[in-house]
Design a protein that fits this description.
Blueprint lengths: L4 H7 L5 H16 L5 E3 L3 E3 L4 H16 L8 E3 L9 H4 L3 H16 L24 E2 L2 H11 L8 H10 L1 E3 L11 E7 L6 H15 L4 E4 L7 H14 L5 E3 L4 H5 L3 E10 L1 H9 L5 E2 L2 E9 L1 H11 L7 E6 L1 H10 L1 H7 L3 E4 L15 E4 L2 H11 L2 E4 L2 H10 L1 E2 L7
Parallel strand pairs: 2-3, 2-4, 6-7, 6-9, 7-8, 11-12, 11-14, 12-13, 14-15
Antiparallel strand pairs: 1-5, 10-16
Helix pairs in contact: 2-7, 3-5, 6-9, 8-9, 8-11, 9-15, 12-14
Bound molecules: FE3-S4 cluster.
Length: 407
């Protein structure tokens, strides 16, 4: 693998032990994937920062790194395992919470920005089209590759840390033009409008296409940012899709030929929609309603506040978001409206990455395909994947009776 003189100095230890260790990680990765060289990156979004995922091994690794060096590149942190300000009030275990705070502190010493969110693009980290970055968190990776048209592989905790310390990643995978062409074309034959519609479409697409790049055709109305956020999370949860194109919408689909010569075409019609929703069709008493997977934008919080205004909920309900978005929600009065109804805005974390299991829920009602997909395997709960308005009605009545089909 070709290395510049500077990269050779890093590998030889001339920039210190931690830089050398990180360069070794990246060279090994590059050799595995046949990368011909390294490429400089402009931002890192670090996954693996929940203590639930990192554990003591991760904590010790990051603490050790933070005693020896500093990040070279602006690095945002993904969702962590607690609400860093409200953990006592929510009732997260003290031992877990203190370890989590220690881990965040170690990342802080390395120079990380305390975003603690899976939607860094909502809080100021927005790469430019074509820029090379090193992001982790599957939904954020799909969003940044597809919607923004920046270029990243799906980085894990150790490779993201190595990228942040050296400012490099091996040049392979989604950094290359040749890896960004669609192997599947999905003809969308139903009208997709709501975030749930996009979650269902994405879930079907990820399930059908695995980890391949795919393209959607036939989407008539230009999707909102929230629609694309839901789509990105869904394609990356039922499959491992890190890049999709929407013909006529996403930037690469308007600037280059994104369809592979050997593309396979699939159809997403009313039957595919219905069958996908039926995978998550719990009805009955409602224990826990969650919106904000990926973390909510201020627009979603405004919508939730409007639906909850003057009401009182029967079930538990979390609205997950970043602290930056909550600050805005506080100023707008949305937080008070939501809390007056009995729901909670939970920052920095989400049910998948925090110790929710200990709360003993039997079902989770959500508008997120990602959460509906992971929750049964994590906690043996049943899930319903429904419209945001229906999530809030279910929280208010404490019941979900199923939906009348409109498609
Ligand atoms: Fe974000 Fe947690 Fe969902 S990290 S995408 S809210 S599983």
């Amino acid at each position: 693998m070709y290395l510049t003189d500077e990269e050779k100095r890093m590998l030889n230890g001339e920039h210190g032990e931690i830089v050398q260790k990180c360069m070794k990680v990246l060279v090994t990765l590059g050799e595995i994937y046949d990368a011909e060289r390294m490429i400089e990156i402009s931002s890192v979004h670090s996954p693996g920062v929940s203590y639930r995922v990192a554990g003591d091994a991760g904590l010790n690794y990051v603490k050790d790194a933070s005693s020896q060096g500093c990040f070279k590149i602006p690095t945002t942190l993904n969702t962590v395992g607690i609400d860093t300000e409200g953990w006592k009030k929510i009732g997260f275990p003290t031992d877990f919470s203190l370890k989590q705070l220690e881990l965040i502190d170690a990342y802080g010493k390395l120079g990380s920005i305390y975003t603690n969110t899976c939607t860094p693009y909502l809080v100021g980290s927005i790469p430019k089209f074509g820029e090379h970055v090193a992001w982790g968190e599957s939904s954020a990776v799909a969003f940044v590759n597809s919607v923004i048209g920046a270029r990243t592989n799906r980085e894990g905790g150790p490779s993201a840390l190595a990228a942040a310390v050296t400012g490099r990643v091996p040049y392979y995978g989604y950094h290359l033009d040749s890896s960004r062409k669609s192997k599947f074309l999905i003809q969308v034959e139903v009208e997709v409008k709501s975030d749930r519609d996009y979650a269902v479409l994405g879930y079907y697409a990820g399930h059908s296409c695995g980890k391949e790049v795919l393209a959607f055709d036939g989407i008539k109305k230009c999707p909102t940012m929230e629609n694309l956020k839901a789509l990105s999370a869904a394609v990356a949860s039922s499959g491992a899709v890190a890049l999709y194109h929407i013909l006529g919408v996403t930037p690469e689909a308007t600037t280059m030929q994104v369809i592979d010569d050997k593309v396979e075409t699939l159809k997403f019609g009313p039957n595919e929609y219905r069958k996908t929703v039926e995978k998550f069709s719990y009805t009955g008493e409602v224990d826990f309603v969650v919106i904000g997977c990926p973390h909510c934008s201020i627009i979603e919080i405004r919508q939730a506040a409007a639906l909850l205004k003057g009401k009182r909920i029967e079930s538990d309900m979390w609205i997950c978001t970043s602290r930056q978005v909550k600050t805005l929600a506080d100023k707008m009065g949305y937080t008070k409206t939501i809390e007056d109804a009995g729901a909670q805005i939970v920052c920095d974390t989400c049910p998948v990455l925090c110790p929710t299991l200990e709360r003993g829920y039997r079902n989770i009602i959500t508008n997120s395909a990602k959460l509906a997909h992971y929750a049964p395997g994590l906690w043996n709960v049943k899930t319903a994947l429904i419209e945001t308005e229906d999530c809030i009605k279910a929280a208010i009545t404490g019941k979900w009776r199923g939906e009348h089909w409109r498609k």
